[in-house]
């Protein structure tokens, strides 16, 4: 019985594909999404809301299928469910322990609702595929305008609440004692996260979203402890992953979402291995430091004897 394997074929006309109008839209749209992910990703890692980010992508799935069911744009359905679910999680889950339970409950209800909507719809199979795996090459000009406006709003909001949000993310107990409003900040942050997830789902899909929104930020935090620098590094990693992913997809005719995620994960692995090696070396040096000081410094009696001898 013959077996057939899929081969990656080099496309000689990849430059003409890369300069096509639909690919320009993909580059612009992917860049906007990557910048948004770089802005919000740092706080996702610091606030330990990676599960919420992953859950919001799946919470948007019933919104997409519901929108198809009633004849509305898929982006509208994604936005309503992503932002609506984020607001519920942000309002009810002020602390991390509460947030995990709330997120799981909202996710379960949303997935059940999505299954119900999918059973009613007859033309949602392609929509389900695009939402699950993304379709960066299908971003339209109108979506670019929407993404650009949302990126500006996201940047302005994060700039406005940056200091109290960072304080409440690093030390929520002390921030609350100092009078920082944790619940309003949680709601604002989750709403901004919902906006970012809504955009990122259309680029890489719900199943691969984690790698674009969270993984570059995790890499950046290992490279720099400073929030501003880490956010910048995260944005650069996300943008480079998107650009390189689109180039490789044009050259070898592979899904861009797969390549984007692979590059982001590869960067994280390299950074993680380097960080682990550096920590191991530092620990070895710390363990060997007392032995390197010598007996004169470790024995005060010998030091006093030697200094008292004429």
Automatic annotation (TrEMBL):
Q: Name one GO cellular component term.
A: ATP-binding cassette (ABC) transporter complex
Q: Which domain of life is it from?
A: Bacteria
Location of the protein in the cell? Cell membrane; Membrane
Q: Where are the transmembrane segments?
A: 26-46, 66-89, 101-121, 141-162, 182-201, 230-252, 258-274
* UniProt keywords, alphabetically: Membrane, Transmembrane, Transmembrane helix, Transport
Recorded hits in InterPro entries, A to Z, give: ABC_BtuC-like, ABC_TroCD
How does the record say this protein sits in the membrane? Multi-pass membrane protein
In the record, biological process GO terms are: transmembrane transport
What family does the entry list?
A: Belongs to the ABC-3 integral membrane protein family.
Q: What is this protein called?
A: Zinc ABC transporter permease
Species this protein is from? Mycolicibacterium sarraceniae
């Amino acid at each position: 019985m013959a077996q057939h394997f899929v081969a990656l074929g080099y496309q000689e006309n990849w430059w003409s594909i890369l300069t096509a109008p639909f690919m320009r839209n993909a580059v612009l749209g992917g860049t906007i999404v990557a910048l948004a992910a770089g802005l919000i990703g740092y706080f996702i890692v610091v606030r330990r809301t990676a599960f919420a980010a992953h859950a919001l992508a799946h919470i948007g799935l019933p919104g997409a299928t519901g929108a198809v069911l009633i004849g509305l744009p898929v982006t509208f359905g994604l936005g309503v469910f992503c932002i609506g679910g984020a607001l519920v999680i942000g309002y009810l889950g002020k602390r991390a322990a509460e947030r995990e339970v709330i997120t799981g409950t909202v996710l379960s209800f949303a997935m059940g609702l999505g299954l119900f909507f999918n059973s009613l719809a007859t033309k949602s199979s392609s929509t389900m595929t695009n939402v699950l795996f993304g379709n960066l090459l299908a971003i339209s000009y109108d979506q670019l305008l929407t993404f650009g406006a949302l990126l500006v709003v996201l940047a302005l909001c994060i700039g406005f609440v940056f200091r109290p949000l960072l304080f409440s993310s690093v030390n929520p107990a002390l921030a609350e004692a100092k009078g920082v409003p944790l619940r309003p900040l949680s709601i604002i942050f989750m709403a901004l996260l919902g906006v970012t997830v809504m955009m990122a789902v259309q680029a890489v899909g719900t199943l691969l979203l984690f790698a674009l929104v969270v993984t570059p930020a995790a890499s950046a935090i290992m490279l720099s402890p400073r929030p501003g620098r880490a956010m910048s590094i995260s944005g650069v990693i996300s943008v480079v992953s998107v650009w390189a992913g689109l180039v490789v997809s044009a050259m070898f005719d592979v899904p861009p979402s797969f390549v984007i995620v692979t590059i982001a994960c590869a960067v994280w692995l390299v950074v993680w291995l380097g960080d682990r090696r550096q920590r191991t070396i530092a620990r070895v040096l710390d363990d060997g430091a007392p032995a390197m000081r010598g007996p004169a410094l470790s024995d005060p009696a010998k030091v006093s004897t030697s200094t008292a001898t004429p």
